[in-house]
Design brief:
CATH superfamily of chain A: Glutaredoxin
Structural class of chain B: alpha+beta
Number of helices of chain A: 5
Radius of gyration of chain A: 16 Å
Shape of chain B: globular
Largest sheet of chain A: 6 strands, mixed
Order of helices and strands of chain A: HEEEEHEHEHEEH
Helix content of chain B: 10-25%
Number of strands of chain B: 12
Shape of chain A: globular
Distance between the termini of chain A: 55 Å
Strand content of chain A: 25-35%
Strand order of the largest sheet of chain A: 1-8-7-4-5-6
Structural class of chain A: alpha/beta
Largest interface: A-B, 37 and 40 residues
Largest sheet of chain B: 7 strands, mixed
CATH architecture of chain A: 3-Layer(aba) Sandwich
Oligomer: heterodimer
Distance between the termini of chain B: 66 Å
Number of domains of chain A: 1
Number of helices of chain B: 4
Chain lengths: 174, 196
């Protein structure tokens, strides 16, 4: 079974590598009417609990992702870069993993070229993603200091692109 | 007189339908993977692009077995023609789509609805499966630059050809595209398709 799985993954990876993947975009769509971001309490890899309400007063880039999702993997480095670029400002990146085991995600992040320093939380039953109306992965929200969802992106993005950073800065300066 | 009125009404209805659904002359390209021999169809329409990648049953089995689906359910979805699907809003406006409006037509001209993610999840919930992901979301409202990917499932024999008819709405107008003569992935891939 393991050899079949390995063979399949190799085949698919080869095909995916050969085909050009869609470029990561840099637009986040402004919501016509900002809505309150549903609160949540989730654990990180060490079992430490985090609640969204604890971040009030900060702009949050809230990302829903999984390791099996190719665009999620591709946009992770840009999340680390934007996290670094806004260090010391009223800004935080939170990546909420969907339905995967801590050990698996730990092993995955260990293989990345740059270790993610932002917060990774675990939504074991996808209850938080459902509360946010997430239909597919990745989906990302930009939440303002008052806890309102202001921008949304479906599909992979380059979050350190000047256009996205301008949107983040605009919310930080409000 | 009565016949004239009926014909006039029919013409009015046809005209209205044509106005409401703009049928696209899509630019479709087919790519064959040199190593696996698997095919990918890419269609670029007005403001919308769709890419469908053949997936072999063993790949589908591996994905769903990993996420804990019961063996019967793994076999059931692996028995469908499964395509990795990438859809993209390439316009500068809001775009929406609903998989429940999509259809496929077999070689005998019979039309079938494409099974939606919601339909799969409903069936899975009945057997205790809570896994929500990997299938193409059944609907979406895309902003500029938004795109999505996931599996699309077609229930036809593995050797049957079919046409896929898909729709999207852009600026209030419903559009329709078509990819002709599609086919499922083979049951398994040969070691070296280029040497066949």
């Amino acid at each position: 079974m393991i050899s079949i799985l390995f063979c399949c993954l190799l085949t698919f990876s080869a095909q995916a590598a050969e085909r050009e993947q869609p470029k990561l975009g840099y637009n986040m769509t402004a919501l016509p009417k900002p809505v309150s971001a549903p609160d949540f309490t989730l654990k990180d890899m060490d079992g430490k609990k985090y609640s969204l309400k604890d971040y009030r007063g900060k702009v949050i880039l809230l990302n829903f992702w999984a390791t099996w999702c190719p665009p999620c993997r591709r946009e992770l480095p840009s999340m680390q870069r934007v996290h670094q670029n806004f260090k010391g400002k009223d800004f935080a990146v939170i990546a909420i993993n969907q339905m995967e085991e801590v050990d698996h995600v730990f092993a995955f992040t260990g293989e990345l070229e740059v270790d993610p320093k932002f917060t990774i939380l675990f939504d074991k039953d996808s209850a938080v993603s459902l509360a946010y109306g997430v239909q597919g992965l990745p989906t990302t929200f930009l939440i303002d200091k008052k806890g309102k969802v202001r921008f949304r992106a479906i599909g992979g993005r380059e979050f350190d692109h000047p256009e996205v950073e301008k949107q983040i800065l605009q919310l930080i300066q409000e | 007189m009565k016949t004239k009125t009926i014909i006039s009404r029919l013409l009015q209805i046809i005209c209205l339908c044509l106005l409401n659904t703009q049928i696209q002359a899509a630019e479709v390209t087919i790519h064959k993977n040199n190593e696996s021999g698997l095919l990918t169809w890419t269609s670029k329409d007005d403001g919308f692009s769709i890419e469908l990648i053949q997936l072999i049953p063993d790949f589908v089995r591996a994905v769903y077995a990993k996420y804990g689906l019961p063996p019967d359910e793994v076999e059931r979805i692996a028995g469908y023609c499964v395509f990795g699907t990438i859809i993209q809003n390439t316009s500068q406006q809001q775009l929406s789509y609903r998989v429940s409006d999509w259809r496929y037509v077999d070689k005998n001209g019979k039309t079938y609805p494409v099974k939606t993610k919601a339909q799969w999840l409903e069936e899975w919930q009945k057997v205790g499966v809570t896994f929500l992901w990997t299938l193409l979301p059944e609907s979406g409202d895309f902003g500029i630059g938004d795109w999505q990917q996931g599996f699309t499932t077609i229930q036809l024999g593995r050797s049957e050809k079919f046409d896929l008819i898909y729709t999207w709405t852009l600026d209030g107008k419903k559009h329709q595209g078509k990819i002709e003569n599609m086919s499922c992935a083979p049951a398994e891939i040969s070691a070296s398709p280029t040497k066949q």
